[in-house]
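call fold(seq) -> tokens
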Amino acid sequence: MNYLITGGAGFIGSKLVGDLLNNGDSVVVVDNFDSYYDPKIKEKNIEKYFHFQKFHLEKLNILNFELFDDVFTKYRIDFVVHLAAKAGVRPSLEDPISYQRVNGEGTINVLECARRHGVKKLILASSSSVYGNNKNVPFKETDCVDFAISPYAATKKANEVMAHVYHAVYGLDIFMLRFFTVYGPRQRPDLAINKFTRLIEAGEPIVLYGDGKTYRDYTYVDDICDGIEGVISYLSHHDNVYEILNLGSNYPITLLEMVQTIEKGLGKKAIINFLPMQPGDVNATYADISKAKRLIGYEPHTTFEQGIKKFIEWEKANR
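ret:
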């Protein structure tokens, strides 16, 4: 199978690339190495894959439709996993126009190139942020998601709707995957677990927004990639598919519990400054994963404590 992975040099994408290459598949990565964080981090994520004959990298922005379309011609793509996006809830409040352009227009370019080149199988990354401050927990795929509280979340909901258009009109088989707070080795440096680990280790204060009782359904990156590969298998054996699927741990952790787990792993106490909740932040995420279990046999195996231990080991080895 010849896979195209957008954002394949990023956190989740680079892990998935390795899994697919080790399975003997061919992988084309499209990534623009955006300066949102140090591009050298992404380069390090994928440097070991260049010795694979079936690995190909195209450094380009998917907003450049002509260049992106050429990738489909050059490599004869069989399957698309679209992970590229402008990330971050809080930054999207400061620059909603660019988030709409990158996440919206970029996704339409993916769908349109797939349609034009006869690629029928696609996985697109959505987000647990589409649920907003949903009062019903755990979150089910059938819950109403019309009340986003950040531009980032709104772009992800819009992408789900646009993807359905391409399924209904053009027959593309699509899974929209709502990822729940993914963490683990290679996690972006701006995300809480990565940032808190480095600050606590250095004896510097960390900032917690709210009272520490908000909670997230933290999901280890290996479990997320297992879920993606389960969806790949499902799509390979089924036609006329449009599905939205939660990929989470189904085990929410409070903000204070998260910090305490990092403290335990480091053997060091955190210096904590509390500040008010920030606009765009949701109070909770909590995934109902029963549909994922039923459709693809999804079963996350990594406990939060195990995942944090693995992350700390990786972080220390990669300073």
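The chain has a mean pLDDT of 96.
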